[in-house]
Amino acid sequence: MVNYRYLGNSGLKISEITYGNWLTHGSQVENDVASACVRAALDAGITTFDTADVYANTAAEQVLGDALKGERRESLEIFTKVYWPTGPKGPNDTGLSRKHIMESINGSLKRLDTDYVDLYQAHRFDVETPLEETMQAFADVVRQGKALYIGVSEWTADQIRDGAALAKELGFQLISSQPQYSMLWRVIEDEVVPASIETGVSQIVWSPMAQGVLSGKYLPGQPAPAGSRATDEKGGAQTISRFMNDETLTAVQNLKPVADELGLSMAQLSVAWVLQNDNVAAALVGASRPEQVAENVKASGVTIPAELMKQIDAALEDVVVRDPAKTLEGMPKKRPA
Ligand code: NDP
């Protein structure tokens, strides 16, 4: 079964393997397969589920809500997010203004068919809304009982510090940061992680498998396997493209002996790797098939010895991205319309 970790400086425990439905539910996979993946997650001991209003333009929340129907609400941790535009994309259907936050949470709760979410996350930093306004709106969402805790995603170290200070002043808990983190993408290590430790914030990390690349199934110079994300023309092929070059795919194949030594698949190794970092509360793993969920949960509780961690670093040295400036570089410079 899956181990639990505390989320930030709070009493909330979450499953260290968390199931996420970006690009899959309401898009790449049919609804019956989506339900089967959620079932596989529950059967394997995953209790924490992550989605966002923007995934499949709100359809992903609906699919997840349907798939979780009938489950005991108190036994689940349901996370969603606000920021990116959805619906008719009017001037206020975006960002972290008080108006958009207060309206978005209601839409998310309806689609997820629940009275509250356990964690409500700012999907990005909104450079057009005063941070005080955003944090006051989150405080009110918490006081209304619509969200129990608040988190952020892809915020810089300074933004996390400022947000955490305001949350404290306003009397609610900012407990999580959701950044990209994997053996190939380590940009949070130098700044975001130290700021998070300082402020009582944990990481819930996305794409720990680099969208499937670290499973080793994409071979240099060969076509991508049928049905994989790299062949998904609804969005997956484009988002995975940053890793789909021969240099990266060749380096990834060097991880096979490390996985073999631990008796793990390469997919399991990649998930176990992010969980070696104590500031990571959960690896946020996606799946297009239930068997993948069953395989990936076995990464829970694995310890990778120091000499094998070094071997991983040596294998990937030339292709790892570490520059902490990437968080700010990737941030929208204005509110998306
Ligand atoms: P992963 O890196 O875990 O990639 C998941 C994909 O890899 C699956 O959909 C599947 O794709 C493939 N895969 C999974 N398991 C295996 C396996 N055992 N063997 C081979 N291939 C496998 O994570 P995601 O990129 O899906 O992101 C996870 C979650 O993170 C999202 O659902 C979302 O909740 C969150 N997220 C958050 C973001 C943010 O801005 N806050 C941004 C992006 C994601 P296939 O079979 O199609 O190849």
From TrEMBL:
PANTHER family: HYPERKINETIC, ISOFORM M
GO molecular function list: oxidoreductase activity
Family: Belongs to the shaker potassium channel beta subunit family.
Domain annotation NADP-dependent oxidoreductase: ranges: 16-316
Domain of life: Bacteria
Identification of the protein by name: Aldo/keto reductase
Listed Gene3D superfamilies: NADP-dependent oxidoreductase domain
